[in-house]
Each structure stands twice: as C-alpha cells, then as structure tokens.
Design brief:
mainly alpha; transmembrane helix; membrane; transmembrane; NADH-UbQ_OxRdtase_su21_N
Length: 138
C-alpha cells in the first residue's frame, strides 16, 4: 500500500512531504514581504480599531499591541510556510523551486525515528527524515 496517494497537480511535484528546513530555505522574497506585512498589519489593525472606537484605555495599549505583534508574526510565518509548501507540492507555480531542487541531492531517509504511520498521521511540521518524498515510480 503506497503511503503517498497519486494526485494530479497543476505543476510538477518537487517534494510530497518536505522537511521544515527545506520549506524555509525555499521561501521567496514575496513570502518574506507577506510575513512582514502580516506582522505589521495585526497591531496596526488593533490600533486603528482603538482610534475609531476607543475603549478609553489608550494608555494601556502596550500589552495588546505586543500580543498583536506576536500573533501577526506567527500568522505571517504560517502564511509564508504555507505558500512555500504549496509550491513544493506542485499546487502553485514553482519554476524557481524546480531549478533549485535540480541542483540539490534528493532527500534521504537516514535519520527517521518515527514509524511510517506516525509520519503520515501527525499534522505537524516535518522534522524527521524519511524516504516518502515522492510517489513510487511505476
């Protein structure tokens, strides 16, 4: 039973389950711009809401703005990570990533400590190395 289901993608599949470091290495400048924009937009939106509908505690906006910055930073990173993952999976235009991947060696499963079930079932960042990066060639 194959662990990776065959699915047709609009663009070539580069890696079906990329390692966390690989996804971050393949960030484009547009991903960093989106990350920075979302980091700034969240506390900016909080401040704008306070200006238009004051809670009469404008002196104490510091903690809320710091929390908003943290939430924007986290959300921006997750958005950039998602965009990079979609390109590696072949769901978005990935010509730049194809060229970069062709100059790198294929990922190998030299360090996998999780069972195949745990690697396939847990919805988290991939921090383990395994051999399930592309569907088996027919």
């Amino acid at each position: 039973m194959p662990l990776i289901k065959e699915v047709s993608h609009p663009y070539p599949l580069i890696d079906a389950d990329p390692h966390f470091n690989r996804v971050v290495r393949y960030f484009r400048p547009s991903d960093y711009v989106a990350w920075a924009g979302l980091t700034a937009a969240f506390p900016g939106a909080l401040y704008a809401l306070e200006v238009f509908d004051p809670t009469r505690q404008s002196r104490n906006m510091g903690p809320a703005l710091r929390l908003g910055t943290l939430l924007g930073l986290t959300g921006g990173f997750l958005y950039a990570y998602q965009n990079s993952s979609l390109r590696l999976w072949g769901w978005k235009e990935n010509e730049v990533e194809q060229q970069k991947a062709s100059s790198e060696p294929e990922p190998s499963g030299e360090d996998g400590s999780l069972s195949p079930f745990m690697q396939a079932a847990m919805p988290w960042f991939n921090f383990t190395k395994h051999d399930y990066h592309k569907p088996a060639e027919q």
